[in-house]
Amino acid sequence: MSDFAAITEELTRRLKRAAPGLRVIREGPEGIELMSDWVHPRKPGEAVWFGGVRLGKAYVSYHLMPVYSHPALAAKISPALKKRMQGKSCFNFKAADQALFDELEALTREGAALYAKT
Questions:
Q1: What pLDDT sits at residue 116?
Q2: Residue ranges covered by each domain of the chain
Q3: Measured on CA atoms in the order 73, 41, 28, 13, is the torsion positive or negative?
Q4: pLDDT tens digits, residue range 25-60?
């Protein structure tokens, strides 16, 4: 198993553990996608995409929409994790980093709770 495959598996496991009430819309060896029950503010009747993990050629991506939709959550991102950030809600990893994975899991758990309240 490649390092990227192992990272994908671990991040997928952590995402599911941190957001257990969310709906899995895709899951496989190349990652996972979760939908919330939160209604999209600009698209009535549609749910909001919560996040996911994607195995890429050059890195593994962890997408977490709550850090985009809730600025107070984004403000909690450590400088070390912020260095892994691509865009407004994506974090890329080329190697496993348990401390950053722990932080992402905590952010995910808090984000899932925020989406559940909305």
A1: 81
A2: 3-117
A3: positive
A4: 999 999 999 998 877 777 888 888 999 999 999 999
What 8-state DSSP symbol labels residue 97? -
Going by their DSSP bridges, the two strands 85-86 and 60-64 should be labelled as unpaired
pTM here? Answer: 0.92
Which CATH code, of 1.25.40, 3.30.70, 2.40.30, 3.90.1150, is assigned to 3-117?
A: 3.90.1150
71: amino acid identity, one letter:
P
Q: What is the pLDDT of residues 71-100, one digit of tens each?
A: 999 999 999 999 999 999 999 999 999 999
In a 3-state reduction of DSSP, which class is residue 67?
helix
In whole angstroms, give the CA distance from residue 91 to residue 37: 23
Rounded Cα gap, residues 9 and 23, in angstroms? 18
Sheet holding 47-55, edge to edge: 23-28, 31-39, 47-55, 60-64, 90-93, 85-86
Question: What is the CB-side half-sphere exposure of residue 13 using CA atoms within 13 A?
Answer: 8
